[in-house]
Amino acid sequence: MRSILKASIAALGLAAMTVGGTSASGQSLSGDLKIFLDTSNPAPRATMEAVIARFQAEHPDLNIETTVIDREEYKTQIRNFLTANPPDVATWYAANRMRPYVDAGLFEDVSDLWNEPEIAENLASTKGAMTIDGKQWGVPYTYYQWGVYYRKDIYEELGLNEPSNWEEFKANCEAILASGRKCYTIGTKFLWTAGGWFDYLNMRTNGFDFHMQLAGGEISWDDDRVKQTFANWRELIDMGGFIDNHQTYSWQEALPFMVNGDAVHYLMGNFSVAPLRDAGLTDDQLDFYQFPVITPGVALSEDAPTDTFHIPANAANKEAAREFLRFVVSPDEQTEINNGSNLGQLPVNAMSSVDDDKFLNEGFAMLSSNSPGGVAQFWDRDAPAEMAKVSMEGFQEFMVKPDNLDRILAKLERARQRIYR
Amino acid sequence: MSESSLQDVRAVNGGGSWFRRNQIAITPWLFLAPGVLFFIFYVISPIFQSFNVSLYEWDGLGEAEYIGLRNYQDLYWEFVDRDAFFVSLKNNVIWLFLYLLAIPAGLMIALFLNQNVWGIRLYKSLFFFPFVISQVVVGLVFTWFYDPTFGLLNTIIGWVGLGPVNVLGDERLVTYGIIAAGLWPQTAYCMILYLTGLNAVDPEQVEAGRLDGAKGWKMLWHVIIPQLKPATFIAFVVTIIGALRSFDLISIMTQGGPFGSSRVLAFYMFEVALSEYGFRMGYGAAIAVVLFLIMLCFIAYFLWSMWKEEKGAR
Question: What is the pLDDT of residues B279-288, one digit of tens each?
Answer without folding.
Answer: 788 999 999 9
